[in-house]
C-alpha cells in the first residue's frame, strides 16, 4: 500500500510520456545550463537499460563518441530532458543489453536487429 | 505558538528540483484532535493532549476519557507542551495546514533497531585489514590502560544495542503540503521504518 501512495502523490513529477524499450535507438534532447547560459544537446544512442519505477525511473543510452563507447544515464522524468524521440525500434531478447559492451568497433557496438516488420 | 502533529512515515521517494534529484520522505500526518488540556493548577505543566488514529476497542477507562471530548477513541495519544492551552478547544481538529511549504520542522521518531552491533557499525571504528595475514578484523581493540585507572572509563564506546532509540531530526524542510491526502513531503530521510510513528513539531528557534 505505501508504495502506491508514493507513486500516486509523486505523479506530478512524471514528465516524460514517450514510450521506448531497451534496444531502441533514441534521440535525447537535453538542456545544459552553464553559467546562466542554457544550451541544448542531442544525444543519439541505443537504450541499453531501463530501471526503477514511478518518478525515480532511469534509463541508459549507449553511443559512440569518437569511436569510443559512451554511456549516459538519465532520470526518465528529469526536467532537463526536453525531448525523447524514438529513431528506430530494436528487436532484442533481453532487458539489459550489457552484452553490447563486449563488442568492439563502430559497427558492432551499435549493431542491432531492427524489428522485422511483420505486416499481416 | 509552537504546534505539532502526530503522523506516520509512508516511505521515501525522489523529486526534481530544477535538474537536481532530491531525496524526499512522505509523511501521512493525519487529523489530530485535542483530547485534553493540562494546566499548571491541576497538572503542574501546560500542555495539550493530541489523539491520532482510530481505536477500535477502547477499554473502560479510555472510553470515559474520550466521552468527555465527543471525539471517537484514538489509539495514539501524545502530549505537546504549549504556552497557552486555552487557545485550543477540546475536540478541536488539527490538520497539516498548520505547516507551510518552505517551513522547517523538527521530527521525532524511533530509529530502526540494529540489534547488538559491533564497534565498527555502531561507532565507526575502522577495524583491521581483512586478509594478508591480518589477525585483527572488527574487534574493538584496547579499551583502556592497565593499573592506573584499573577500570574502564565511563561512556567507553563498545559494542551493544544500536538503534531503536528516540531520535529527533531537526530543521527538516517542508517541500509540499498536500491537504487533500493529508500528506506532507519533506526533504531528506527520517528515523524509523515505513509506517512508524512520527511527532512533528515546529522548530522553536
Describe the structure.
The complex is a heterodimer of chains A (120) and B (205). Chain A is mainly β and 120 residues long. Chain A has two helices and five strands. The longest helix of chain A is centred in the N-terminal third of the chain and has 8 residues, at 2-9. Chain B is mainly beta and 205 residues long. In chain B, β1 and β2 form a beta hairpin. The radius of gyration of chain B is 23 Å and the shape is extended. A six-stranded antiparallel barrel of chain B has the order 1-2-11-10-7-12. In chain B, strands 5-4-3-6 form a four-stranded antiparallel sheet. Chain B has a two-stranded antiparallel ribbon with strand order 8-9. The interface between A and B is medium-sized, with 18 and 18 residues.
Structural class of chain B: mainly beta
- The H/E string of chain A reads HEEEEEH
Q: What letter string, H or E per element, gives the SSE order of chain B?
A: EEEHEHEEEEHEEEE
Helical amount of chain B? under 10%
Average predicted local confidence, pLDDT of chain B: 90
Number of strands of chain B: 12
Classified by CATH, the class of chain A is Mainly Beta
Question: Into how many domains do the coordinates of chain A divide?
Answer: 1
Oligomer: heterodimer
Beta strand % of chain B = 35-45%
Sequence of strands across the biggest β-sheet of chain B: 1-2-11-10-7-12
Features:
heterodimer, A: 120 residues, mainly beta, 41% strand, B: 205 residues, six-stranded antiparallel barrel, 12 strands, extended
Topology (elements, then pairings):
The complex is a heterodimer of chains A (120) and B (205).
Chain A: H1 2-9, E1 25-34, E2 37-51, E3 58-65, E4 68-75, E5 81-88, H2 106-110
Antiparallel strand pairs in A: 1-2, 1-5, 2-3, 3-4
Chain B: E1 4-17, E2 20-28, E3 32-38, H1 40-43, E4 47-54, H2 60-67, E5 74-81, E6 93-94, E7 104-110, E8 115-117, H3 119-123, E9 160-162, E10 166-178, E11 183-187, E12 197-202
Antiparallel strand pairs in B: 1-2, 1-12, 2-11, 3-4, 3-6, 4-5, 7-10, 7-12, 8-9, 10-11
Amino acid at each position: 500500500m505505501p508504495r502506491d501512495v508514493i507513486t500516486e502523490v509523486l505523479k506530478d513529477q512524471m514528465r516524460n510520456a514517450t514510450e521506448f524499450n531497451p534496444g531502441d535507438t533514441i534521440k535525447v534532447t537535453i538542456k545544459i545550463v552553464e553559467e546562466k547560459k542554457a544550451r541544448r544537446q542531442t544525444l543519439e544512442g541505443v537504450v541499453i537499460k531501463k530501471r526503477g519505477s514511478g518518478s525515480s525511473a532511469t534509463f541508459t543510452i549507449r553511443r559512440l563518441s569518437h569511436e569510443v563507447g559512451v554511456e549516459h544515464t538519465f532520470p526518465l522524468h528529469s526536467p532537463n530532458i526536453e525531448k525523447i524521440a524514438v529513431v528506430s525500434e530494436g528487436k532484442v531478447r533481453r532487458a539489459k543489453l550489457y552484452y553490447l559492451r563486449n563488442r568492439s568497433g563502430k559497427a558492432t557496438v551499435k549493431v542491432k536487429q531492427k524489428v522485422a516488420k511483420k505486416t499481416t | 505558538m509552537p504546534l505539532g502533529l502526530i503522523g506516520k512515515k509512508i516511505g521515501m521517494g525522489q523529486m526534481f528540483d530544477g535538474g537536481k534529484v532530491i531525496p524526499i520522505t512522505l509523511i501521512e500526518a493525519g487529523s489530530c484532535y485535542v483530547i485534553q488540556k493540562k494546566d499548571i493548577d491541576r497538572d503542574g505543566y501546560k500542555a495539550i493532549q493530541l489523539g491520532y488514529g482510530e481505536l477500535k476497542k477502547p477499554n473502560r477507562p479510555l472510553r470515559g476519557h474520550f466521552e468527555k471530548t465527543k471525539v471517537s477513541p484514538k489509539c495514539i495519544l501524545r502530549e505537546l507542551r504549549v504556552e497557552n492551552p486555552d487557545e485550543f478547544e477540546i475536540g478541536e481538529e488539527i490538520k497539516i495546514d498548520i505547516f507551510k511549504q518552505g517551513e522547517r520542522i523538527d521530527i521525532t521518531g524511533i530509529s530502526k533497531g540494529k540489534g547488538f552491533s559491533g564497534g565498527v557499525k555502531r561507532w565507526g571504528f575502522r577495524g583491521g585489514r581483512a586478509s594478508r595475514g591480518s589477525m585483527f578484523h572488527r574487534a574493538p581493540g584496547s579499551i583502556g590502560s592497565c593499573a592506573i585507572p584499573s577500570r574502564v572509563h565511563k561512556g567507553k564506546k563498545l559494542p551493544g544495542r544500536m538503534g531503536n532509540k528516540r531520535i529527533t531530526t531537526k530543521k527538516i524542510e517542508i517541500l509540499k503540503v498536500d491537504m487533500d491526502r493529508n500528506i506532507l513531503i519533506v526533504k531528506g530521510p527520517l528515523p524509523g521504518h515505513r509506517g512508524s510513528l512520527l511527532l512533528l513539531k515546529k522548530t522553536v528557534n
